[in-house]
Specification:
The protein is an alpha+beta fold. Helix content is about 60%, strand content about 10%. Helix 5 packs antiparallel against helix 6. The N terminus and C terminus are likely disordered.
Length: about 475
C-alpha cells in the first residue's frame, strides 16, 4: 500500500508536469498522508492462508449459494446503475480521446427549382468534406482525456464493488436461512423432549409421586416451546421471502432449489477460513481503487484548468465538388480551402480562469482526503473482520468441547436408564441440555460464517486489480 501511495503521487506529478516544457503548467501540492500499516495488528485467525477470495462461494460446498448470487446480481438495480455509469464514463472517455485528433464532417446537398420565369429549371448538387483540428499546445485535451480515463477506470471499479456487495448480501441472507432451518430442527427436537417430560410429569402427578404444580410447569414449558417453534417457522419463511426479493425468483422455484440442501449440517467451511492476509490486500478493494482514480482525474482537471489561461491554436480546411445544370448552363466545380488558422490568446476574463483553477485545486484536495478516508476505512473493516473471525473460532472450539462433554453425559444417562439406575425424566433433561448447547453452537457457527462474509467484503471480494 505504501508503494501504491508512492506511485499515486508520482503519477499525479507526471500527469501535471508532462507538458512543462510547453507551458507553465505545474502539479498541485499534495497534502501529507499517513502511510498504511505494514501488517495487520489484529490476531490472525487459525494461522494458515487462502489464496483466492474469488473461489469462496464455489468452495463452500453448496452449489445453491453461487446460483443465488448470480441471480441476485442479474436482478440488482444497483448493479445495473453501476453498469450505466460505467457506459457513460466510457462514452466520455471516447469523446476525450477523439478531441486529441481532427474531426471530419461530410455533407451533401441537391436542389431543383426555378428562380424566375421564363428561365428554365435548374439543378444543383454538391458534396464536401470539412476538417478541423485544435493543436494541443499545452496539453489541455490530453489532460481532459487522462481525467476521462481515470474516471472510466473508477466507474469500472465501482461496478465490481457493487457486485461484491450484492454477493455478500445474498450470502448473509442465504446463510441466515440455513441457520434458521438448523435452529428450527433443534427447537422441534426440544419440543419432542418437552412432550415426553410433560407426559411423565402427569403420570407422576396422577400416581402421587409429584405435585400437580410440577406437571403444570412442564406443560407451560411445552407451550412455550410450541410458541417458539411457530416463531422460528415464521422467521424461516421471512428469510425465504427476502431471498425471493433479492434473486427475483418465483417462490416455488426458489423453494425447490433450497430443498436440494435441506437438512445439511451448518458449519464454517474451509473455504471461508482465512488464516493470513497481507496488508496490501487493501489495494484490491474496488472502492479504494475508485477513490485513487478520482484523485488522478482531479489532478488532470487541475492541469486542464490551468491551460485555459494559455493560447489556443486551431486549423480548419475543406474540399468539395459542385455541379450546376440548367438550360444552356452546365458546370462542374471543385473547391478546396485551408484555414482559417486561428490563434486565441486570453487577455481578460474577469478572473474566471483563475476561479476555475482554484475550484479544480479544491476538488483535488477533496479527492485526496476521500482516498485517505477510504483507505483507513478499508483497513478498519479488515481488522474488525479478522478480530471477529479469530475470537469466533476460539469460542466455537470451546462450545464444541462443551457439547461433546454433554453428549458423553447423555450416553451415560441412557446406559443408566437402560440398567434401571436412573429415571426417564433425567434422560430427557440430559437430552434437552444437549439441544441447548447445540443451539449455542449453531449461533456461534453463524457468527463465524458472517465473519467470513464480512472478510470477503472487507477484502474486496474476489476481484483483483490488473
Amino acid at each position: 500500500m505504501r508503494c501504491r501511495r508512492t506511485l499515486l503521487l508520482a503519477g499525479v506529478a507526471v500527469t501535471l508536469t508532462g507538458c512543462a516544457g510547453l507551458g507553465p503548467v505545474a502539479a498541485p501540492p499534495a497534502p501529507e498522508r499517513p502511510a498504511p500499516p505494514a501488517a495487520w495488528q489484529a490476531p490472525v485467525a487459525h494461522g494458515g492462508s487462502v489464496s483466492e477470495l474469488s473461489a469462496w462461494w464455489a468452495q463452500v460446498g453448496d452449489d445453491t449459494l453461487p446460483e443465488l448470487i448470480a441471480l441476485a446480481q442479474a436482478a440488482s438495480p444497483s448493479l445495473s446503475a453501476a453498469q450505466a455509469q460505467l457506459e457513460r464514463a466510457r462514452a466520455e472517455l471516447s469523446a476525450g480521446q477523439a478531441a486529441l485528433g481532427p474531426t471530419v464532417d461530410a455533407s451533401a446537398n441537391a436542389n431543383r427549382g426555378n428562380t424566375q420565369y421564363p428561365l428554365p429549371l435548374s439543378r444543383t448538387a454538391g458534396a464536401s468534406l470539412a476538417a478541423s483540428w485544435e493543436a494541443d499546445l499545452f496539453g489541455r485535451n490530453r489532460f481532459a482525456a487522462q481525467a476521462a480515463q481515470a474516471r472510466a477506470d473508477g466507474a469500472e471499479a465501482l461496478w465490481h464493488d457493487a457486485r461484491v456487495v450484492i454477493a455478500a448480501e445474498t450470502a448473509v441472507q442465504y446463510l441466515s436461512l440455513r441457520y434458521c432451518e438448523a435452529v428450527l430442527e433443534q427447537v422441534a427436537a426440544d419440543l419432542r423432549a418437552l412432550d415426553t417430560l410433560t407426559r411423565l410429569a402427569r403420570l407422576n402427578a396422577e400416581a402421587g409421586l409429584q405435585t400437580s404444580a410440577a406437571a403444570d410447569g412442564a406443560a407451560a414449558r411445552q407451550a412455550g416451546a410450541s410458541s417458539r417453534l411457530l416463531a422460528q417457522q415464521a422467521a424461516c419463511d421471512l428469510d425465504v421471502k427476502a431471498l425471493v426479493a433479492l434473486t427475483a425468483l418465483a417462490e416455488p422455484d426458489l423453494r425447490q432449489r433450497l430443498a436440494r440442501r435441506a437438512g445439511r449440517d451448518l458449519d464454517v467451511p474451509p473455504a471461508m477460513v482465512v488464516r493470513s492476509m497481507p496488508a496490501q490486500v487493501v489495494a484490491q478493494r474496488p472502492d479504494v481503487l475508485a477513490a485513487e482514480r478520482e484523485v488522478l482525474a482531479a489532478a488532470s482537471l487541475v492541469g486542464e484548468a490551468r491551460t485555459l489561461r494559455l493560447p489556443r491554436l486551431s486549423l480548419g480546411g475543406s474540399i468539395g465538388a459542385f455541379s450546376v445544370r440548367g438550360g444552356p448552363l452546365a458546370a462542374d466545380l471543385n473547391t478546396w480551402s485551408v484555414g482559417p488558422i486561428r490563434l486565441q490568446v486570453p487577455v481578460f476574463d474577469g478572473g474566471v480562469a483563475q476561479a476555475r483553477v482554484k475550484a479544480a485545486a479544491a476538488e483535488f484536495d477533496h479527492a485526496v482526503r476521500q482516498f485517505d478516508a477510504k483507505a483507513r476505512q478499508a483497513i478498519r473493516e479488515v481488522e474488525e473482520a479478522l478480530v471477529q473471525a479469530h475470537f469466533t473460532s476460539q469460542r466455537l472450539t470451546q462450545v464444541r468441547s462443551a457439547r461433546l462433554a454433554l453428549e458423553r453425559s447423555l450416553r451415560a444417562t441412557e446406559q443408566r436408564v437402560a440398567a434401571g439406575l436412573d429415571s426417564r425424566q433425567s434422560l430427557e433433561e440430559a437430552r434437552r441440555a444437549v439441544i441447548d448447547i447445540r443451539l449455542n453452537e449453531l449461533a456461534t457457527v453463524r457468527e463465524g460464517l458472517i465473519a467470513g462474509v464480512s472478510l470477503y467484503r472487507a477484502a474486496g471480494g474476489g476481484w483483483n486489480t490488473p
